[in-house]
């Protein structure tokens, strides 16, 4: 199962996959995009923005899983997408940033000006909620590889593509001797534990006044170096 960095030309396919995978998910689907059924195509705008931001962030790495379509010979199809981020202020992060190869923003076509599927008040919900869960990444856990996004197209679920995308970051973390972390979507804890994350250390949706209160999932898992 090939795991590789994507090409800028694959951004539309990645955004479409992410929109499909998270369409009914509690946070990115139901909470952030409450008008998605009326404007399903607009959900891809959100994911295009996130993918493009990852390409422009020196300590983040975009990865795709692919398969070859039998009916089209050697043509590849993207089956999964991951965004890993090297967090911390140590030399390991500096190395990752020095290895970064940027993408010219002009490589991407302009996006539609308005995302009618999104709730304007929920667009920044993760940033607004950060004070309620940032403590999980303090101390020795601050130096870590964080799995910001993982998605596999529903047509290819259960075929090992997600595990390969997770393994990439866990292997990097082990090599550097740092933690790895992820915030799991609802029902995904068992998958991450099977992949190599060691334990659930808390949840991002709890706390009086937390904007994420009532959102499904949110368990924080770490792999200890």
TrEMBL record:
Looking up InterPro entries in the UniProt record yields: Acyl_CoA_acyltransferase (IPR016181), GNAT_dom (IPR000182), Trichothecene_AcTrans (IPR052523)
Which is one GO molecular function term here? acyltransferase activity, transferring groups other than amino-acyl groups
Q: Which keywords label this protein? A: Acyltransferase, Transferase
Does the record bear DNA-binding in its keywords?
no
* N-acetyltransferase domain span: 133-225
What superkingdom does the record give? Eukaryota
Acyltransferase among keywords: yes
Q: What protein am I looking at?
A: Acyl-CoA N-acyltransferase
